[in-house]
Amino acid sequence: MERNYNKPALNITDLLGLIRSKQIVINDPEKAGFYLRTVSYHRLSPYLESILKNHSTAYHPNFDKAWELYCFDRELRLLINDAIERIEVAFRTSLSETMSCQYSPYWFLEKNIFKDANRYTGFINQIDVACQDKHNSPIQEYYRHYNDPKYPPSWILFECLSFGVCISAFCNIKNLKDRKAICKIFEEHPTTMQSWLYAIRYMRNLCAHHARVWNRWFVVSPALSFMLGDNFNKQNTCYAHLIILNKLLEKVSPESKWKAHLKSLLEKHKTLPIYEIGFVKDWQNDNFWCN
């Protein structure tokens, strides 16, 4: 059955009317109109829906509260990005230095190190693409000075490959002892680290594209049952991802104030229903956050 989309484009006045039609109070139409000129209604709509769902029967939902929710989500993404950057850089460094010292600066060319031949072929293709990128300054700097070996050494190359390619290379390393050595700085087993890295990569991509993390069901979730028990059913929430970011960050950046910044952000927006992103009752008293 054919279904045609026939909704018209709405100007700011019409959008304000649409919001009011949902029984959402707009205290300052001029300010709300300005916000809608800089952040689209489509982007704001999940936050509007959230306050509609969670408002008290004692008062009407308010546009300002939806805007606060949007701002909280944005601030949370920035905080998440800060943690991911440090974890990603530490992972790239450990992967490259561990394998380079164990084998050679060109360990990635030793096919017998890897488990899956097809994945290895794809990995080398990705390396070729990175090396042909004329905008990749570190790699092009290598070629300005050298023409042999064909590729730059690992410590240059693995700073230029995508995070996803680095994760895939790690997961395809055959020797468990090597993968354990790479994960030593994080104090996690390679199986756990693999799950967490893929979850972090997914969250990283969401944040890079300014996508909502508020009340999102994360399709890639970190393995946590071994830490929190089989009754923990929030692996697909933002809260679960914040747990692993905090745990890894404490290993690679122990002087970081990230956890304090997260608590401060939550305190700043303490009237928001944070259970929608998976926070449990009395979460502050959990060992993950009070240690």
Tell me what the structure shows.
The protein has 291 residues and is mostly helical. The chain has one domain. The protein contains 14 helices and no strands. Helix 3 packs across helix 4 (63-102), helix 4 crosses helix 9 (176-183) and helix 4 (63-102) packs across helix 10 (190-208). The longest helix has 40 residues, at 63-102. The radius of gyration is 23 Å and the shape is globular. The N and C termini lie far apart (57 Å).
Note poorly predicted spans.
none
Class by SSE composition? mainly alpha
Which bin fits the share of residues in helices? 55-70%
The radius of gyration over CA amounts to 23 Å
Features:
291 residues; single chain; globular; mainly alpha; 59% helix
What is this structure, in a nutshell?
By secondary structure, the protein is an all-alpha fold. It has helices spanning 12-21, 29-38, 41-54, 63-102, 117-132, 137-145, 154-157, 163-171, 176-183, 190-208, 225-228, 238-252, 258-268, 287-290.
Produce the secondary structure layout.
Layout: H1 12-21, H2 29-38, H3 41-54, H4 63-102, H5 117-132, H6 137-145, H7 154-157, H8 163-171, H9 176-183, H10 190-208, H11 225-228, H12 238-252, H13 258-268, H14 287-290
Helix pairs in contact: 1-2, 3-4, 4-9, 4-10, 4-12, 4-13, 8-10
